[in-house]
Amino acid sequence: MTTRYLTTSIPYVNAEPHLGFALEIVEADTLARHARLRGDDVRFLTGTDDNALKNVAAAAAAGVETADFVAANAERFAGLRESLELSYDDFIRTGSDPRHAPGVRKLWQRCAENGDFYQRRYTGLYCAGCEQFYVDAELVDGRCPEHGTGPDVVEETNWFFRLSRYQDRIIDLIESDVVRVNPAQRRNEVLAFLRSGLADVSVSRPALRSGGWGIPVPNDPSQVIYVWWEALGNYVSALGYGTDDAAYRDWWVNSDERIHLLGKGVIRFHAVYWLAQLLSAGEPLPTAILVHDYLTLNGAKISKSSRNTVDPGELAGHFGADSVRWWLLRDVAKVGETDFTAARLVDRVNADLANGLGNLVNRTLGIVHKYRAGRVSETSSGPFAEAVGRLPASIDDALADADFRTATAAIGAAVEEGNRLIETVRPWELFRAEQSGDAAAATRLDGLLAELVAGCRELAREIGPFVPAFAARLGIQLGAGDRVGPPEPAFPRLELPAAEPILSR
Q1: How do residues 383-415 score in pLDDT, each as one tens digit?
Q2: Among candidates 292, 293, 110, 276, which has minimal Cα distance to 193?
Q3: Which residues contact 91 (CB under 8 A, 6 or more apart)?
């Protein structure tokens, strides 16, 4: 049995969740559910980044105390569990979870013992949206490449981390795939950044600038730990690193796979800074960093700060969690941006779930009840059985490469084989022949129905990690053994709303 520790990045709570983060957490949930289906031992973590200065700024703009503002938005992220049918095992809030600060302090102290911190005065170009300093060469026409805003010139005394010390070791780790960065395009970007040369990085902020919000630097209360350095520690603090290390040993030190899912905008922090922190502290590294691209809305990146957003909870409330999940997993490209529209979601879900698998199951149950009173015999072999038999391996291979589009396409191909079988063999003609006394036709009809039911049951099982509620309904309808339930629409067709107030902000 393989043990897998799966995490998402933890989003800022300066605004409500948007569809871009829903993509990440649904992908992570699918991997977790799939691993559990295969019998693996899984721990799935998500949470919120509460200590960012942008949270403080957003709270001030709203005229609300920072703690209250952060708590309210964190609850909205936690609420995605129900609206998107998520199965995470743990949810950490870095501003209030008692596990987090001790873990961060321990990580800092381990790095300090290794001589990797020093203090100096610094002037730099700072993007508040990224919570990151940039150099001139990284800006696009003098603006942040991520947010399109001009950075602030900040001069202050900070603690610095000797990132440059770890450049060659990190290059070796990524080139050798000891730490696998997927997809290859993002791996190449990280390696290019590393080969350009690493500079030491600021890892603290004056407590006065943050209003005291954040975790104080050990032995220096005049500074708080820079949010990115501190937030990355959630992956181990949630396991009790710094408090009770039992879960840390089980799920980090001894786990077979330690997998981070994240968006391309934060890859540098995870594939460079985080690896350096762990190397400095003498702790094990993640085994894989899986990176997704951005969603867009009307051609622009979905973003809380730009208020160009789609609310995933409201979207799921209108179309259903399975519909949102399926579109995110079936239509979103592994590399390159994907534009969201409600029409695309409706078209995809109707084609694949309502007219595809839902229709196949409904047709199968209908003919079983019509010709055999809801009973089937032992499974028979055939092209549909062969297609479904190949499906688990196809899904395994695709998800091992974090290729959700290919995995869901494999399910669609198997569904097409089932519908093709019905149209080719034509059970209604076999039944007529049976009624005329053709014993061979009766045997063939029994075999066909058994093959269809067994294949649909396997499809319901394999689609479960992707659309769990739909799969559960199919499982009930398809029954077990020689009995099946009555036919009824398994997935109603979707309709576009007359107006779309839920689709943008």
Answers
A1: 999 999 999 999 999 999 999 999 999 999 999
A2: 276
A3: 45, 46, 47, 78, 81
